[in-house]
Amino acid sequence: MLLLLLLFQGPTVQELQALLEKSETMQPAGLSEPAGYALQDPLVAALSPTWGQSFGWKAGLTNPVIQQRFGVDHPISGKMFRQRMYLLERKIPLEDLRGHVLELDLIVRIGSDQIMTAESDAELFACLDGWCGFIELPFLAYPPGEKLTGGDLAAINCGFSHGVMGHWYGLPQNALDATGFGAIQADISVGEKVLAQGSVSAMMTHPLIVVRWLRDHAIERGQPLKKGDYLSLGGMAAPMPLPGPGVFLVRYQLGDKLLDSFYLQFK
To answer: Are the beta carbons of 79 and 195 closer than 8 angstroms?
Structure first.
């Protein structure tokens, strides 16, 4: 009966909260984007007592190829919760991540309220005061193979569940300017085997385009960005299944220059 209600009437906030907190899947309801975001805002408020306050935004569907599968031509947003971030030195229990996948991502922080009026890429970049590599561990709340809409993804807060932030670097960092920022590459490996690799060019062709989209989108939702907000800019490669227990190396590079590296530990 619950599945029928979810399918034909759409989920309630209480149903979404229960499913996400228990990492249980649901059938998609084919929601419109306005309907999905109308559920997302109260869902974020309902999750906050246990997940902590939101500290920033995430952009999903930043790859045009993935957008086509959802029938949209733009990203979908969600909110991030700091208490759901694993510390770098922690061994992450795989039993807590049933139904999750792994994505190479990137986070930036807004350092100036002038981002609200910035126009050029250089102006947008100047409004960012730091960045870090980010391994997102999103939850697949819908069964594999189901046809989804952008609204379905918005309703589950764009799948945000857990993540691991790398080392923090201020901007500008050495020779990392707005142009270089659009050429960062990353990979995750174990031993000599590369498990996944990608580039920020998968983020709407340039990560600053995602920053601009999030800025404009937040204004449309009546929740303008502000100094101190963190922005997750989307996947640099296709999501990969979680690896088994072990230690995995994550690297972020600009050409031959290593920008950051850290280890993920799963148990």
So the answer is: no
